[in-house]
Each structure stands twice: as structure tokens, then as C-alpha cells.
Amino acid sequence: MDARTPDCPRCGYDQSGEVVRWTESCPLQGKCPECGLEFAWADVLLPERSRLTWMYEHKRDWSPALGRAMRTLANLALPWRFWARVTLAHEVRPWRALWFAVLIIGGVWFVTGVLGTLGIWAIGRHYPYYLTANNFAEAWVWPVMNTVGVGLRVANIGPLSFALNIEHWGAAVFLVVGFWVGMPAVLCLLSTTRQISAVRGAHIARAACYAALPLAAIALPRLLMNVEILINAAQNPPGRWQALSWLVRHGSTPLGVASAAWTLLWWWFTISRGLRLAPAWLVFGLLCTCSVLLSLVLLVSLGTVPVQWILAF
């Protein structure tokens, strides 16, 4: 069994010098002289202790592996549970974490687009005028964008003018995006100073990839609405069942609040339990302040909230 290179699980500092000092016995616990992390030498030296069988990030290939993806997603839903099982000693594969995030977010949006397209075809059987390029395109880009150019324009493709649907996003989206960008950026800055934290970039990249998962929730109201459209369009004449529409109208705000709450919990347990930074409250408070300010900048710059409203507080 080949041993691993004895690097510090958190900062990556080579511990070979400590190993050379062993003469008569091997200590069970070690401490990194660079960042001060205490660790078990078995976690550093034995490769079989660095991988988890349920974690998508530790797959050997790039296949979807839905079973492992769902188990990983179930653990991610509870950040304290995830970081209780995933330690700094476990292998970090940020590109696999990114691929996992793309699969989950892209999968939700793909299913939403397919259901929307099928719904348009189903409605078109009863009302042919509904079969337009505009409706088919919006089935894939709504609610992030519209195809009539209302808002901040992104691109023009033929008769369609794609624009950001900012008024439909809600403040929670900006908070999630602000934390998604702000937290890793400030952590990287802190890591370069070696004063508060010394963390490998791979650990920060992994946390950032998983922090993007709430972006999939943006499409959930549209997904439910497309299911309702399909159910109604399957009837002749079309039905008027609106239970899911009611859920969409009254459930978007709680969904946004839940996404924002999960984001805060994710970063708190990432800092305190995942990266084991101390003092955790100081680091978390500093990162939260920077991320909230970034969220406010996005709100103001995109015209969602007037500057006067913020200055009033």
C-alpha cells in the first residue's frame, strides 16, 4: 500500500520534515507548523482514508451516477451533516464538485425546459396561435430571461431579444449570488495573508461549487407551473386545475428565504467545521459583511433597489 505525500490537509504544507524526526515511534496526532491545524497522521498518510464511497466528488469517472449524486445531495441539504462526514483530510476534487453542481442545476433547468416545451405543444393542439418561437424560447430561459427585450438586454437572436428578468428574481437571489461570489473571494484574500486562515484554494473552490446549488431553486416555480400546464392541456377541453399555480404564487418567497437560509448555514459550517478556521465567528462575520455589501451593490447596479432606499437606513 503506497503512502500519500504528507501534506497538511488544510494549507498543503509539506510535513515530510516532521516525519523525518520520527526515530523510535510514530505519533498518532500531528500539528501543522504553518497553519496550526491538528490532524491524525493516519488521515495524512493512508490513501484509503481519503475517499468516501457515497460522495460524487470521489468517483473515478465522469458518468452521472445518479445514486451517488442523490446521496451527495441529501448530505448537502443539511450542511452540518455534510461537514461532519467530510473532513479536511478527504481528497478534494474541485472539478468534480463543479461537474456535480452543473449536473444538478443544469438537470433542473433541462427538465423545466422539456416540460415547458411539451406544455406549449399540448396547448397548441387546442390553440394553434400559441405555437410561437417566443413561447418556445421562454420555456427554456424564463424566469432568468425573457424574449421580448424588457429589462437589461443580453442578446438579439433573430426576432427574439433576450433580456434579464431582474424584477422576477427577488432579493434572495441577489443574496445567494453575493455570497457565492463574495465568500470565496474574501477567503482567498485571507488565505494569502496567512494571518487569519491558511486554506488551499481547492477547499475554497469545492465550497463555492456546492454553494451554487440554490440557483437551481430559481427554476422550481416554473417547473411546477409547466407540470400544471401539461395536466390541464391533456384534457379536452383544457382543464382549469390551478393548485400548483397557487403554490407558485404563494411559495416563491418561502423558497427564496429557504435558499438564503441554507446559504448562510452552508458557509457557517464550511468555516467552523469544514475548514476549521478560528475564531469562526470573526471570520464568518467578516465574510458575511463583505458578501452582503456585494449583494447590495448588485441590487443597486441592476436597478432593483434605488440607492435612496439603502441610504435611508
Q: How would a textbook summarize the main sheet? A: 3 strands, antiparallel
Number of H- or I-type helical stretches: 12
Q: What is the alpha-carbon Rg in Å?
A: 24 Å
Number of strands: 5
Distance between the termini: 62 Å
**What proportion of the residues is helical, as a percent range?**
55-70%
Low-confidence spans: 305-313
What is the total number of structural domains? Answer: 2
Please trace the helix and strand order, writing H or E for each element. Answer: HEEHHHHHEEEHHHHHH
Judging from the principal axes of the Cα atoms, what is the shape? Answer: elongated
Structural class: mainly alpha
Arrangement of strands in the largest sheet: 3-5-4
**Share in β-strands:** 5-15%
The overall average pLDDT, rounded, is 82
Commentary on this structure:
With 313 residues, the protein is mainly alpha-helical. It folds into two domains: 1-50, no CATH class; 95-128 and 168-311, no CATH class. It is built from twelve helices and five strands. The chain has helices at 16-20, 41-45, 66-76, 79-85, 94-126, 133-141, 171-193, 201-211, 220-233, 243-274, 280-301, 307-311, and strands spanning 29-31, 38-40, 145-146, 152-157, 160-164. It has a three-stranded antiparallel β-sheet, with helices on one face. Strand 4 and strand 5 form a beta hairpin. The chain is elongated, with a radius of gyration of 24 Å. The N and C termini lie far apart (62 Å). Mean pLDDT is 82; it is low at 305-313.
